[in-house]
C-alpha cells in the first residue's frame, strides 16, 4: 500500500502488530473485496493524520492463519490491538470520520500516554 500503512503477514503479525509500541488498527482485507479497496485511501489518511495510531492491513487469502486466529469471516474487518490484545472490532467499510469517532478513546488514551 504505502510507507504509512504496513502490509502485515502471518510471519510478522506478532512483531508488527502485537508488540507494536502504539495501538494498531488492522484491516483484514482481500484483493477481491471492493469495499476493502475503497478503504485504502481512508487508511492512508488516518495513518498520516494520527501518528499515535499505527495502521496495517492483512490479506486474509495470503495470510489465513492470522485471520483464523481472530475469527475473521467478513471483509473488511477492522481490529484495534493494544499491548498484544484486540480491544476493538468492527466490520464493513465506513467513512474516515466514523472510524476516527469509533477510535477516539483509543487515540486519546495513547496521546495522553505519549504526549
Largest sheet: 5 strands, mixed
Q: Tell me the number of helical segments per DSSP (H or I, 4 or more residues long).
A: 5
Highest-level CATH class = Alpha Beta
What name does the CATH topology carry? Answer: Glutaredoxin
Q: How many DSSP-defined strands?
A: 5
The average pLDDT score comes to 92
What does this structure look like?
The chain has 115 residues and is of the alpha/beta class. The protein has a single domain (5-114), classed as Glutaredoxin. Helix content is 40%, strand content 25%. It has 5 helices and 5 strands. It has helices spanning 13-18, 34-49, 64-69, 96-102, 104-114, and strands at 5-8, 24-29, 54-59, 77-82, 85-91. A 5-stranded mixed sheet has the order 1-3-2-4-5.
Defining key terms:
5-stranded mixed β-sheet; disordered C terminus; alpha/beta; Glutaredoxin; 5 helices; 115 residues; 25% strand
Brief digest:
The protein has 115 residues and is of the alpha/beta class. The protein has helices spanning 13-18, 34-49, 64-69, 96-102, 104-114, and strands at 5-8, 24-29, 54-59, 77-82, 85-91. The longest helix has 16 residues, at 34-49.
Amino acid at each position: 500500500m504505502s510507507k504509512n500503512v504496513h502490509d502485515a503477514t502471518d510471519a510478522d503479525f506478532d512483531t508488527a502488530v502485537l508488540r507494536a509500541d502504539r495501538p494498531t488498527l488492522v484491516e483484514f482485507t482481500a484483493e477481491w473485496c471492493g469495499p476493502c479497496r475503497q478503504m485504502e485511501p481512508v487508511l492512508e489518511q488516518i495513518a498520516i493524520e494520527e501518528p499515535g495510531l499505527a495502521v496495517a492491513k492483512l490479506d486474509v487469502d495470503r495470510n489465513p492463519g492470522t485471520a483464523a486466529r481472530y475469527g475473521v469471516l467478513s471483509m473488511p474487518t477492522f481490529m484495534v490491538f493494544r499491548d498484544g490484545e484486540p480491544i476493538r472490532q468492527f466490520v464493513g467499510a465506513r467513512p474516515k470520520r466514523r472510524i476516527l469517532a469509533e477510535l477516539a478513546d483509543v487515540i486519546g488514551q495513547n496521546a495522553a500516554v505519549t504526549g
